[in-house]
Amino acid sequence: MKVLVLLVAIIVGAAHECHGSEHGASFQIFPLRMKTGSGGHYIPEVSCASWRLGVEAHNVIEWKTVPLSCEGYIGNYILGDQYRSDSKTVNQQAYFYAKTLNITAKDVWVFDIDETSLSNLPYYAQHGFGVEPYNATAFNEWVELGEAPALPESQKLYKKLLSLGVKIVFLTGRPLDQKTVTVANLKRAGYNTWFKLILKDTSIYHGKTAVTYKSSERKKLEEEGYNIIGNIGDQWSDILGTNTGDRTFKLPDPMYYIS
Fold this sequence. Notes:
Elements: H1 2-17, E1 19-20, E2 27-28, H2 44-56, H3 71-79, H4 81-99, E3 107-111, H5 121-124, H6 136-145, H7 152-164, E4 167-175, H8 179-188, E5 196-200, H9 202-205, H10 210-223, E6 227-233, H11 236-239, E7 248-250
Helix pairs in contact: 4-7
């Protein structure tokens, strides 16, 4: 028995020290053991990555701000190659799906705007990448500049869908009084044509969740005889609810949460 215990200890110790090298790569191996101390000890890089996974999987919900300790992690992610790669994968799958369809004149694809079609990274880079509480006044001042750039991967999907003959519908939580600047910003960023641009009428949807608002507007599209073949957004509230379309696609966004 003592020999068996010693052998297990040696194996676990070796696993802790060694690194994998399959395919020429090197991987650090973390031993499977309980965390120690009051509440457990967390390595910041690991816990922030796990938090982001929970956000994207919609296991972490109704959160207000990015954890303060994760500002650097989220900033590095959102400005780095991984965010672009994740966005590319989502948009590629959307296009691969669209190519399999027989497009008709009644087929539409719903695009969210903020963090889907347009990027507000210039704003969030100055506001802690979501660490700071949402400030409607400051954010609306940014929107009114009309300078948000396009998300390159989403714009590629937009152009490819147009080439397939799909009608584009922009469905955004921006209020109606931002229509003029939103139109100008979309065109400035390279989105030059669309079938419909739907902004939120706050006189109708005041106090309503984004899920309720977007579900209702998608229902109107279908009642007009249009078939929503695809629906893409960065928030779960963009793709949950009713009348979500034949397929939905979730882009990464660990900077804020909209219910």
